[in-house]
Amino acid sequence: MQKLQQHQKSEQRLSPQQIQLLQLLALPSFALVERINQELEANPALEENPSAEAENTETEFTDNEDIENLETREDEPISWEEASDEESYYKKGENCPFESAEKWSLLEYMQNQILSLDLDEQAHAIAELIIGNLDEKGYLQRDTVAIADDLAFYQGIATNLEAVEAVLEQVQSLDPAGIAARNLQECLTLQILRMAEDEMKGLALRLLKLPIDWLLQKQYKKIEQKLHIDSEILHQLLVYMGHLNPNPASAVVENQTENYIYPDAVVHLIQGKPKMELLHYRIPSLQVSDYFKELVLHNDPKNNTAIFAKERMRLAENFINALNQRKNTLLNIFSALLRHQEAYFLSGNASDIKPLTLKDLAQELNMDVSTMSRALQAKYFETPWGLVGSRTLFGEKTTKSDGEEVSTKALKEQLAQIIAGENPEKPYSDEELAQKLTETGFLVARRTVTKYREHMGIAVGRLRKK
C-alpha cells in the first residue's frame, strides 16, 4: 500500500536580479561597457542620461560602503612546466593597454553552454558554483566537498557529494575538452577519453595512471619499464600526448578577438599613504525613458501597450540597480584590500603581501566566497609599481622561525631569489632549497618546497642544469 508523506523544507534561491548582479560583477570595466550597450539595444525603456557625462574619471573610495548582502546561490612535443598558476603583474613602464586572455570570457562561454544541459534548479546552482570556481586555465579550484558545503551554508540548498560529482561530470562533458578538471592528470584524461579508439589511446590512459611527475620530469626510463614499451613506442606516445592541452581554457580565449587589460582601480601614493580609486571607461549614466513613463501614465493598466511599457521599465530599473550594486560591491572589496595590503601598495614588494584568503575577506565583508571570487575575476589595479592582478593580493599563511606570520607569497619570492642566484651548472635540489629557506627564516620541509616550486612553474634541479 502506498503512503503519501509531506515534507517541509526551506530553501533560498537566487532571484533574477541577483543572477544579473553576479553576471555584472564578473565583468571588468571595459567589458561592462559592451554589456551596457547590449542592454541599451535590447531594452527601449533604458537610455543614456543626456544631462550626465559619461563616467571617465575616478570615483573616490569611502571606507565603509553599504551594499546589499548577497546569498549566492589548467621531437618532445610536451612542455608542461611552462604553465604557471601565478597571476603576473607588470612592471612600471609597460603602459596599458596590455594584451590579455580574459577570464570573464571563459565564464560567459561556460554559462552559455550550461543552458544546454537538462538541469533542475538545484543542479543548475551546482553547475554555476562549479564554473564560478574555475581558474584562468579552466581548472576547478574548489573541491566537491567544499562546493556542497557552500551550497548548504550560503544558498540553503541541501545536497550531497554524489549530486555535486554528477553535475561536475556533466560540466566536464562540455567544451573545451578537459574543462573543470581538478588536476593535470584528470584534464588530460578527459581529453583522451574524447579521442578516437586506437592503440595509443589505451596506452596514454595507462600512462596517466602513473605518477604525473614521471612525465613532467621526463623520467622516460621509468615510464618504459612500467608500461613495458621501448623508446620508439614511447616517442609515438609522446607525440600522441603532444596533441593534448594542459591549459584547456586557452581553446576558448585564443578563438576570440584580441582583448586588452585595463585597470579597474588606480592606487596613488599621497603624503605617504596609498589611496585607491575606482576607474570607469566610457560607462554612461543610465535612466528610465520618460517616454515609457508617459505610456504607463496615459494608458489603461490592462492595455497591452501599458503592460509592455511597465515590464520594460521594470527591467531597466533592475539593470540600473544592478550596476549601482556592482559599483558599491567593488568599492567595498577594493577598499578592504587596500586596508589589508597597505604595506604592499607602499613598497611594491611581493614579500610585503600579508596573509589573506578569499574566505577570510568574504567573512569580513559578510559576503559568500563565490560572490567574492566572481567580483575579483579579471580585475586589475594600476599602481606606482605596475599593473597588479587582484588575486595577486591573496595568499595563504606561513610562520617564520621567529613566529612572524607572513604570506606564502613572501616564501615564493624568497624561493625565486634563491633559484635565480644558484650556480646554473650545479642547481640546488629541493632538499638544498629547503635548507637555504631555513637559513632565511622559513621553516619548510622538502615536500613543501617541491609543491611551491611546481606551482611557480620552475623545473626540478636536474632539469635546470645548463
Structure description:
There is one protein chain. Helix 16 (358-364) packs across helix 17 (369-375) and helix 19 (430-439) crosses helix 20 (446-455). The protein has three domains: 13-62 and 85-101 and 261-394, no CATH class; 184-247; 397-464, Homeodomain-like (Arc Repressor Mutant, subunit A), CATH 1.10.10.60. It is an alpha+beta fold. The longest helix has 37 residues, at 304-340. It is 47% helix and 9% strand. Strand 9 and strand 10 (386-389) form a beta hairpin.
Structure at a glance:
By secondary structure, this protein is an alpha+beta fold. The protein has helices spanning 16-25, 29-42, 103-114, 121-132, 144-155, 161-172, 184-193, 199-207, 212-216, 220-227, 231-241, 250-253, 290-297, 304-340, 342-347, 358-364, 369-375, 408-420, 430-439, 446-455, 461-464, and strands at residues 46-48, 59-60, 90-91, 98-100, 259-261, 265-270, 273-278, 286-288, 380-383, 386-389, 397-399, 405-407. The longest helix is centred in the C-terminal third of the chain and has 37 residues, at 304-340.
